[in-house]
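Deliverable D5.2: sample structural annotation.
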Amino acid sequence: MTVLGSAQSAGLRLLGVKPSSLFSTSDPFALELADLANEVATDIAQVHDWRKLQLLATLAGDAVAIAFSLPTDYDRMPKKAEVHSLNWKTANFRRVRDQDEWIYIQDNLISGMPGNWIILGGKMQIFPPMPVGETARFYYASNKVVAVDAASAGSKTAFETDTDCFVLNERLLTLGLIWRWRSQKRMEYAEDLKNYELALEQEIAKDKGSNILTVGTQRMPFDVAVAYPGVLGQ
């Protein structure tokens, strides 16, 4: 479904009106829905680490650089982000707690293998410099929540035309438009917000995938990693 389709569905439920266009019209109601559509889409993308928006970034070491540009569509790191080493199979890069610790690590040449990382100044910082042949890999959330159209592989950060499509669930976009429009007009929207939040919870639950059912006593804490099941070269 296009953004126009989502807005038309919302328009029918709000005012019994089905806008013919969002971005090539002077109709105030359609323009309001167009403006809200981008805000609602951003809110939905930010509320959860959606698997559809997770992309893998790779940074190659050259034994000199410690600051690396983030992907152009970078929005944020997932809540449980890890930066993985290509060469070290039993250890990840260590997340630095804050800027003060980052200064301390560099001043005292504290290395630890494969290294430490922090995001500062819009760049991924890794210390000590990764050697040639080392690669840091991590997943990040993309800010491109809009597909150019249903048949295209192109994506962008905001709706601009009626044929643009929401990368995530279109029903969420429709329900989000309904409660946000009523809220904006200082109208009663509690039931609409409840419907939206219920749909959001359902989509988040589906996005995580099926859970593994464990029968009996748990043999290992949930946050403990399994030992690498192979022969290590290090």
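Annotation notes: Residues 3-49+168-207 form one domain. The CA atoms of residues 214 and 221 lie 12 Å apart.
The annotation will be released with the project's public dataset once the embargo ends.
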